[in-house]
Amino acid sequence: MKYKPRYTISLLVLWFLVMMPFTAQSAKTTQVNSGSVLPSKVESRIMELEKKLFQLKTTQEQLLASLNSSNEQYRFLVTAFSVVLGSLVAIGALFQGFVTFFQLRVQNSGAKQVSDIMDVVEKTIKNRLDAEEEARNEATKTHNELDIISDRASKAIEFLKIFRDNIQKNREAIEDNAIRLAKTPRHNFRSKVKELKNFADQFDMFQKQYMRLEEESHPFSSKTRYIRGIAAHYDNQPEIAKQHLNEVIEAQQPEAKDTQKGFKRRVANAYYYIGITESNFGNTQASIDAFDQANLLDPEGMDFLTKVVKAEVYAMGHEAELDKVYNMVQEILTGLNEKEKKDGKLDGVYLRLKSRATLVHANTMIQKGEKSWLQKAEKYLMSIYDKDPGYYYSTATLAQISFVLDKHDQAKRLFQEAYDAIEHSDDLSTVQETRSKILLRMVMAICCRHGIKDEQRSEEYFLKADELCESLPKMGSQICTVFSPFSKHNEIKDTVHNHIKLMRGDEVLSVTNV
Fold first, then answer.
1. Cα–Cα distance, 16 to 10 (Å, whole number)
2. Are 474 and 329 in contact (CB under 8 A)?
3. H-run or E-run covering 478
4. pLDDT higher than 80, residue 321
């Protein structure tokens, strides 16, 4: 039987505790009875004790053997434990070494981390120092650039000042030109179309490029807008003409250095050009209203040009009020005759106005289409021809009437003279209104055909007039009309094309009762 050491030790302790009282009792008994003869009961008791001692001895020997065996086992266990303990010590040492290694590893790792952190710190500091150095350099550079910018800004400010001074000078130049051109009589504006064009370009450029850059921008004067409107009129820009001329009309008070008379004259002229524009686009009533407003600003009644043009508007309409036209013409002629008596003669412009008024009257007679009226018209026109032979429209109309009345030699001569008068006037190259350019070329065409007998040149003029009809100015959806020398009315472009086709043949005038 194998005992575990811890169990064996426990049994020995238990046995000692049990047997200890019995041993003490035996010793006491022996001492009491040592001198007496042991009775038989004692002997038997001794024998029993001896037996028990023998058993005890045997048991002791077994126990000792067991103890020895247990000791051997215990020694083995101790040895094993020692081995184990040694192993544990070795393992502990190994563990300690591992711990030490780990600690060292941790320390090394920590040291590496610290090293890395220090590297980062060092790099950060270096970067910061580099950044600060770069910032200082940049600040220096910026400071230098600011100095440059400041210098440039100063120069820019100086340039702007100079530039604005130049703008102001340009404005003053425009105003000065307007003041100069505003002194031009209406009948002379056509001879200054190039100056008007240059003025318009200068004005438009200033408004587009410079006006917004002015330090204190303000509208142009009424004189400047007046001239810009007239320039637009002669440059086939009816909408722009009306825009600026209406601004002139809306100016209720005279401006600096304006006289009351000059102010009224400028407003009246603005109405005049608006009236012409409305007439050219067939807006008869609007045209008449504008002319009436212009006449109201002429209390002396000396604006014969507006009166003549108003009569023309009535005469050129297809529903012409011929009696009203006659009365208007008679009023104009009476006024001009009185002026002639007062002045001793009529100057060029007034003589031309008298011729023009007479032509208006003759045209109303032609529109009736009767031979007797044609003969009366011929008489009126001959009076103009005698006093004002350079008025080529009157001369060409007289030639047309002569042609219809079968006075072909007279007609040929008159057509030739009208042709020469047009060439001499240089109006073919100076007149810019498309409407007037078409009329001039139609007249030149019939003069070439029936006067100088040059059909090739005649065809060139007809062709050019036909082409110009496609470039007539527009006002909204309306297209400008053209005065036709064939019908003596304002006509739309399709009718003008047809009249050109008729005049390419032998027809020179639209009459019905000859």
1. 10
2. no
3. strand 478-479
4. no
